[in-house]
Amino acid sequence: MRGLAPMAVVVAALALVPLLTASNVVLNFMVMALLIALVGQGWNLLGGYGGQYSFGHAAFFGTGCYVTAILQMRYGVNAWVGFCIGIAAGALVGAIIGLLSFRSGLRGSYFALVTLAFAEVLRIIASVTPITGAGVGTLIKLDLRPEAFQFQSRAPFYWIILALVALSLLLVRAIEHSRFGAYLVAIRENEDAAKALGVDATMVKLSAMTISAAITAAGGCFYAQYFLFIDAGIAYGPWISIEALLAPIIGGIGTVFGPLLGALVVKTLGELTKLVTGSAPGLDLVICAGTCSRPAHRCQPRSGVMAEPRLRVEQVSKRFGGLLAVDRASFAAEAGRITALIGPNGAGKTTLFAIITGFLPPSAGRVRYDGADITGEPPHRLARRGIARTFQIVQPFATLSVRENIAVGAHLSRPSRADALAAAGDVARTVGLADFLDRPAANLTVAGRKRLELARALAIEPRLLLLDEVLAGLNPSEIRDMVPVIRGIRDRGITIVMIEHVMQAVMSLAEHVFVLSEGRIITDGSPQVIAGDPRVVEAYLGRGAASRMLGAARA
Amino acid sequence: MLSAAILVPAVLNGLMTGAVYALVALGLTLIYGVLHIINFAHGALLTAAMFAAFFAHQWLGLDPYLAAFALAPLFYLLGYGLQRFVIGPAAHGEDHNILLVTLGLAVVIENALLYAFRADTRTLNLPYAFKVLEIGNAFVAVPRVVAAVAVVAVALALWLILRWTDTGKAIRAVAKEKLGAELSGINVAHIYAVTFGLGTACLAIAACLLIPTYYVNPHAGNAFVLIAFTIVVLGGMGSVPGALLGGLFVGVVESLSGFYLGESLGQIGIFAMFILMLLFRPNGLFGERA
Amino acid sequence: MPEPILAVSGLHVGYGATEILRGVDLSVNAGEIVAVLGSNGTGKSTLNLTISGVTRAWSGSIRFEDAAIERESAPSIVARGLIHVPEGRRIFPNMTVRENLDLGAYRRGRARRLPNSERVFAIFPRLAERRHQRAGTLSGGEQQMLAIGRGLMAEPKLLILDEPSLGLSPLLVEELFALINGIHAEGVAILLVEQNVVQSLEVASRAYILDNGVFVLQGTAAEIRDNPDLKRAYLGM
């Protein structure tokens, strides 16, 4: 286990601190630094790895503080037991807020706002309800016995917080190397693409939030025991929400050691500025944001889903307000064949695709897969049935390597990280990306990214693959190279449905073509027949292009 | 309990308070609608404006309503400068960075005010602060009436600017299509800064309208910020009429619930509404897609 | 031989650590149509955005009408009459067709906004019918027309058209190329950046082929059109 050695060294070194100094000032400083590191690690899991920035982590910290204190003081519960219950309570609060937020699809600034609001609500409640001591706060009675989680000197406190930090490091590292971690990062990079690869985004985010809350709550429980006094402003105040995010951002967001490093830096800076002025922690945020910007590539890989032997779209309609985007469209894709869907821009092809792949519910009609009704099923469940899709605008999970990108798809049937990474290598070979496996996906050319889309989709081992303009943006020689790859996928028994504008490809690949115009399927047939159909020619092909198409088909 | 004699003043007062909330929210929604950033520094900037209004009276003897005419352009320039030279460059246009930069700015401004003016709460004692006007059966404080009228005037002025001036059209263009605007010859960085400046100018005016009846301390602005966020979400991010109507609505809700439930719980009512809006209708009642 | 209206030399452009354009030389003469062909990812859009001042080059020179513009901002380049109609239309959806056109003259040609918008409506009768309609409700083809019309409002001396045929049905593409000829007939120089090889070579007098950040081929359209080896090697035809 590679990463464990440095971790052990760091923790061991830190454990020596109380043996090297008897100064209470230093110990206090270190205890606070480790506390912030713990709270920051909690934030880091959700914000750094998961990409969901919370501005209200105080909600969990404060819950830990108060539950521990109140259980001890009002109900005589043992301090250590109270500590554990406090962590559970914090986790519960996290789960509730997470459930509400993620079920509603809140992301980005909106998510930050709602977490801020929740923390504020808790703060106000805590400052008025009698059980928390209202404005006066809550005191934990002095009782310097280990059984009561209080100690004569600071050293035991220090070792306890250090142990908690060490546990959090191990936990985050374990997550980093697991399927859960891969899914979490995939969601951060591109949630829609992750969903299309079978990731239940809501559950993953919710789990991350719950664990994050538990870690942060542990910090709160500790705080209450260490300082023995809390009030609404201390427990639920913005100060702790800010510290929670400052530490990982400064120390390295989305890394195991980031929060620890950042906490030490922040605390040190804090002490230094306190010497000069009151305190100005905010300066760090401004500077840091300026220098620590991560390249935020948004990758939307599209995986093709292998189609079942048959896909049947029955009288599907979609209405957006007054606009009927899709009007009773019906078509079927035969198993093991390549079916193309063509039509002018705005004809409704992408809308239809979104309906079939679960990103949009239809206003009417059914979608059947091997006879089973899959209408309205969410993307991740369709992926598990064996339906994959690619997205029109190609964006891989940018900060991950090609292999890691494909592995996200491979994880669908492989819980083990090692298996998924190995399988990813195999898939990469089938699309010709073997030479790029360990390069960052962001460095691929457009043609490479299109292949990565395909690879990611193939990694979930689909039976139905839906390609959304997979050839758009490629030059003629790249198209020529891509055609056999697509044919090869079909030859392995995977059913393909493709939207295309590139007529050259439609002519050479498709076995059956459906034409969509103004939301309606106006005709279907073999590519040659379609090219000669006067309705199609008039509405869509234009006379010049039609003869070029026929010329190419004969060539 | 529901008699008109009690309800009407409560509602009227709510509308007046709501008007000022609306002005604060107006700046926020404008900034969001154009720059697509949630300005977490809004509260701190309001606090700074309130201090400015306070000291304009203490040191220069300027009546707040007059000070508004000086502070509005001053804070416009401040906002312009902050966006043009601090927020814009530091953020590199990344969403996450912008969140952090505005948050950092808020902390810096608050701490600076704390350091300069300590945590004491101060109030202005103005002769007309307690004058009342009789409207029908209700007595309404004069400063509140002035505030409401001023807010309507400001909102109207903003609407006219956005609708009819070339800069206003450029602002609306940049809000929706930044690259297209740039290639049409619009200086986007400048437009962003102008918009931010307009937002802070609104704050300066709001501060001057608040100061006669409200206290000032380094945390005063925060109370308004979450309320302003609530209004912005309620009325729809980026919608000016939404901010106005939302402000009035929230003002009335706060007044009524504070009346029936007590002060502190009135506040919770607003946040609860905020959370519910975010969860179920983040587009708000008038808003554009989130 | 008059100076070219646009002269690009030794251009290196990239994002972050990735170099996209690795030393590019290009020229457009007054009143000419020049085509730049190649697929996405080879740098075509980067080239356009750098010439129009949205992106800053790492090194190299760009001269427009014999003035160095590589350090100038996008608005001041617009003021000179170098107009870039971007890929993907990029019109203002919340404003009417008329307001969109007016904004095209924000920096250049403002005084002649009214007569110029009438000229645009004469060229695009479909836009004239919809002058008070919100641009966001127009179809893809109409939005493309509006984008080009907005570009024309600035009285361009050189018009850069970035993939105008992308996403248009073959029928509309034919109309588009007829339009390009029409604009050219008025004396405007055009830099046409496209993936649509056949029709681009029909309207252009010269062409460059961009591959992986460098021009691998350049010449008259006729040379490229008629040489089967060249076409096979670089265009896959």
Record keyword descriptors for this entry.
heterotrimer; A: 555 residues; alpha/beta; ABC transporter involved in vitamin B12 uptake, BtuC; Rossmann fold; 6-stranded mixed beta sheet; 4-stranded antiparallel beta sheet; 23 helices; C: 237 residues; 2 domains; 10 helices; 38% helix
How would you portray this structure in words?
The complex is a heterotrimer of chains A (555), B (290) and C (237). Chain A is α/β, with parallel strands linked by helices. Chain A has two domains: 4-291, ABC transporter involved in vitamin B12 uptake, BtuC, CATH 1.10.3470; 311-554, Rossmann fold. In chain A, 58% of the residues lie in helices and 11% in strands. Chain A has 23 helices and twelve strands. A six-stranded mixed beta sheet of chain A has the order 8-9-10-5-11-12, sandwiched between helices. In chain A, strands 4-3-6-7 form a four-stranded antiparallel beta sheet, covered by helices on one side. In chain A, strands 1-2 form a two-stranded antiparallel ribbon. In chain A, strand 3 (311-320) and strand 4 (323-333) form a beta hairpin. Residues 290-309 of chain A have low confidence and may be disordered. The model of chain B has no long low-confidence stretch (mean pLDDT 85). Chain B is mainly alpha-helical. A two-stranded antiparallel sheet of chain B has the order 1-2. Chain B has a single domain, classed as ABC transporter involved in vitamin B12 uptake, BtuC (Orthogonal Bundle). Chain B starts with a helix and ends in a 10-residue tail after the last helix. Chain B is globular, with a radius of gyration of 19 Å. Chain B contains eleven helices and two strands; from the N terminus they run H-H-H-H-E-E-H-H-H-H-H-H-H. Chain C has two domains: 1-81 and 156-237, P-loop containing nucleotide triphosphate hydrolases (Rossmann fold); 88-154, no CATH class. Chain C has ten helices and ten strands. Chain C has helices at 44-51, 74-80, 97-104, 113-123, 125-129, 140-152, 170-185, 197-203, 221-226, 228-235, and strands at residues 6-15, 18-28, 33-37, 59-64, 67-68, 82-85, 158-162, 189-194, 206-211, 214-220. A six-stranded mixed beta sheet of chain C has the order 6-7-8-3-9-10, sandwiched between helices. The relative contact order of chain C is 0.18. Chains in contact: A-B, A-C, B-C.
